[in-house]
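Sequence design from tokenized structure. All designs in this work follow the same two-part layout: the structure record, then the generated sequence. An example of the structure record is given first.
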């Protein structure tokens, strides 16, 4: 059973989604809810088991016994296993929240969420770039349908722009794959890392073009400046459980940059080593600046949270640009924290909007919410965490990242922008909290009370804030080992390429 663990986070949601489309589950909402929750919980369990066996080293899963670099291979290392668990927990929380009634506003919600989880888990586990493209398409197709779930003019407009932009990104992805395959003769990530240094002349130029095209594609997925403009409107238009699940989508792009531009175009790439980093540095800092400006200009809590996602993307790009294991470790800790807390804030924004009537979650004077204590505590914990206020996990993640800036030049660039972006987040969230909870036109409230499903989903996500601090030692040890594994791929080539390079 242990040997098959790497494929279970893909197989379980895929088979589960197919079963939900068949009788007796199809057409029965109650049965679908129960089955969907069970499938999501089993996926979380499989992800936990996959994380636990990482003590045995990298797990390679070869489909059809076609050995790499020629066959389809899944690679479960510390980095991919951590992100698979993160995705599975986020999917469970989204399904929990939707069970309060959001899943009834459209068709096939639960199968689509499971297909989305399958696609994201596959993107994290695949060992070659072509199958990364395949899983990108799976998760994107599911996201197209989920974004428009429930209908409405705003969702339709946002979905049109989102689909058009991602179709362009997919086309560029294919061009990049063609260039790299024609140059290197392989798309297996580990095999590419052994071939890249031997290139010279025109082949090296082509590989550089392919690598930079991939940076554009992954930057689009991650919402890196100047490719970030789609995110705010898309996330603000989506229903709350979908927006919460989408919190992991930008991290797929970040993960891909980590994987390709640290392993393939890393320190063993000869003349192409770290070729993208001169671009990543300014774009990372500008993404932070643009996200901070957007946070201050946000008219409602959903758009504010979407801009906080952009700030988190900029912060993670800084961890990539620093090019050291300490920064990668800090970035992984921050990635987990930011994904969970931003997802929670999307759900909290929806709960607040339901209890404020027509004002929804906009920063205007309105009637008070019906459950100010419950929603106020949820918002306070989420805001303190995402802003990086001690003693919550956001503070730990940012301190680790600040410590990872070793050189004087790095400190002069990273520290001021990171600290100022945190200050701006505090200001924006303070304005949001005072407006939503204290500035009210009347004490009368007629909104619906938060259901147990809502409370359970938000609590599951917010629980990460104190847990990541209490378990900070084991958590940082794990991320440190994951970073070391990522930066030392040549040491693991006997496992990744048991038959030797192509």
């Amino acid at each position: 059973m242990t040997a098959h663990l790497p494929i279970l986070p893909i197989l379980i949601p895929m088979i589960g989604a197919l079963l939900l489309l068949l009788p007796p589950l199809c057409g029965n909402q109650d049965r679908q809810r129960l089955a969907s929750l069970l499938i999501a919980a089993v996926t979380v369990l499989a992800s936990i088991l996959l994380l636990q066996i990482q003590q045995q080293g990298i797990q390679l899963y070869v489909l059809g016994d076609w050995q790499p670099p020629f066959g389809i291979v899944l690679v479960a290392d510390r980095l991919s296993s951590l992100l698979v668990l993160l995705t599975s927990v986020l999917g469970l929380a989204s399904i929990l929240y939707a069970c309060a009634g959001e899943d009834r506003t459209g068709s096939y919600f639960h199968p689509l969420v499971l297909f989305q989880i399958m696609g994201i888990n596959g993107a994290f586990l695949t060992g070659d770039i072509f199958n990364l493209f395949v899983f990108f398409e799976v998760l994107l197709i599911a996201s197209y349908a989920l974004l428009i779930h429930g209908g409405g003019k705003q969702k339709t407009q946002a979905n049109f722009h989102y689909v058009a932009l991602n179709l362009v990104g997919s086309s560029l992805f294919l061009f990049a794959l063609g260039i790299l395959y024609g140059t290197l003769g392989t798309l297996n990530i580990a095999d590419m890392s052994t071939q890249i240094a031997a290139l010279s002349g025109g082949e090296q130029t082509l590989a550089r073009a392919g690598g930079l095209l991939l940076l554009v594609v992954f930057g689009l997925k991650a919402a890196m400046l100047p490719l970030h403009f789609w995110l705010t409107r898309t996330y603000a238009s989506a229903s709350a459980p979908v927006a919460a699940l989408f919190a992991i989508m930008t991290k797929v792009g970040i993960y891909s940059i980590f994987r390709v531009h640290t392993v393939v175009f890393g320190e063993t790439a000869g003349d192409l080593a770290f070729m993208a980093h001169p671009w990543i540095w300014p774009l990372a800092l500008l993404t932070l600046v643009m996200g901070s400006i957007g946070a201050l200009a946000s008219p409602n809590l959903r758009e504010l949270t979407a801009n906080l996602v952009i700030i988190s993307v900029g912060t993670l790009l800084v961890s990539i640009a620093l090019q050291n294991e300490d920064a990668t470790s800090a970035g992984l800790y921050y990635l987990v924290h930011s994904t969970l807390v931003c997802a929670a804030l999307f759900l909290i924004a929806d709960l607040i909007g339901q209890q404020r009537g027509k004002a929804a979650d906009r920063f205007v004077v309105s009637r008070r919410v019906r459950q100010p204590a419950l929603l106020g505590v949820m918002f306070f914990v989420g805001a303190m965490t995402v802003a990086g206020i001690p003693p919550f996990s956001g503070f730990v993640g940012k301190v680790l990242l600040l410590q990872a800036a070793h050189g004087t030049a790095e400190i002069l660039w990273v520290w001021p922008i990171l600290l100022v972006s945190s200050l701006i987040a505090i200001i924006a969230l303070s304005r949001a909290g005072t407006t939503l909870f204290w500035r009210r036109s009347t004490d009368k409230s007629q909104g619906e009370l938060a259901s147990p499903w809502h409370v359970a989903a938000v609590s599951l996500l917010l629980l990460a804030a104190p847990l990541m601090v209490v378990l900070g030692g084991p958590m940082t040890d794990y991320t440190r080992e994951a970073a070391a594994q990522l930066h030392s791929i040549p040491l693991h080539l006997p496992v990744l390429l048991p038959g030797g390079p192509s």
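Residues 276-470 form one domain. We note this feature because it recurs in several other targets discussed in the main text.
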